[in-house]
Amino acid sequence: MILGIETATPTCSIALGSNGKVIASDSIYIDKSHSKILTTQIQNLIERSQTKMDQLEAVAISIGPGSYTGLRIGLSVAKGLCFALSIPIIGISTLLSMAYSAHQIIADDEALYAPLIDARRLDVYTAVYNSKLESIIYEQSIMLNPNSFQQSLDDKKVNFFGTATIKASELIQHSHAFFHANFMISADSLIPLATKKLDEKAFDSLAYLEPTYLKGVYTKTPVN
Predict the structure, then answer these.
(1) Which CATH superfamily is domain 2-93+185-199 in?
(2) Along the 224 residues of the chain, how does pLDDT read in single tens digits?
(3) Taking the domains of the chain in order of start, what are their residue ranges?
């Protein structure tokens, strides 16, 4: 049994899965509330699915890029569970997880998949994958402009999805660009990806696993 935790965006999502299949999940969209609801959300899902904590074999955590605060909260909870239960932690790229989910929905093996996570102003976190989830463009933070993704768009149809989809659609005009504004980020896609890693015993270091930020973490200096 694997518990998946997704907190990289305003959606706080969790899922339970076995043998690569999701058996129960829950997603709540309440901005800046992950610290208040995540642990209760996990407890409720465990009880609702008639599962016990000691049945968990691993925790899969979406490690970013995304919201700095959301990622830290999700990883802290995941590590706490793994330490308490003496089970491994499995970090999954948020962008890869989104691409997996989008491919399951759109199912176009000839197209490319470009997840977009809002990084404020015109910045986005993104990558481009083919239908085999191989990286065509590696994870990066970019500033959107009308020529963004030009080479990929000239070559193939590109599906755009995620929290910055509408922002991108207002700038990128191309016949090969398809925008999926209703796409919902979910922990469900962590389950099959983490199951493969669990089978391969490809675990991450519980002590040293950190979020993937892509951009520097900025903090304000207190004014005396």
Answers:
(1) ATPase, nucleotide binding domain (3.30.420.40)
(2) 999 999 999 999 999 999 999 999 999 988 778 888 999 999 999 999 999 999 999 999 999 999 999 999 999 999 999 999 999 999 999 999 999 999 999 999 999 999 999 999 999 999 999 999 999 999 999 999 999 999 999 999 999 999 999 999 999 999 999 999 999 999 999 999 999 999 999 999 999 999 999 976 544 444 43
(3) 2-93+185-199, 94-180
Could you count the other beta carbons within 10 Å of the beta carbon of residue 39?
A: 14
What's the predicted TM-score (pTM) here? 0.93
DSSP 211: -
Q: Which two tokens stand for residue 220?
A: 């304000």
CATH superfamily of 94-180: ATPase, nucleotide binding domain (3.30.420.40)
Contact 6, 185 (CB under 8 A): yes
Cα separation of 144 and 85, whole Å?
Answer: 43
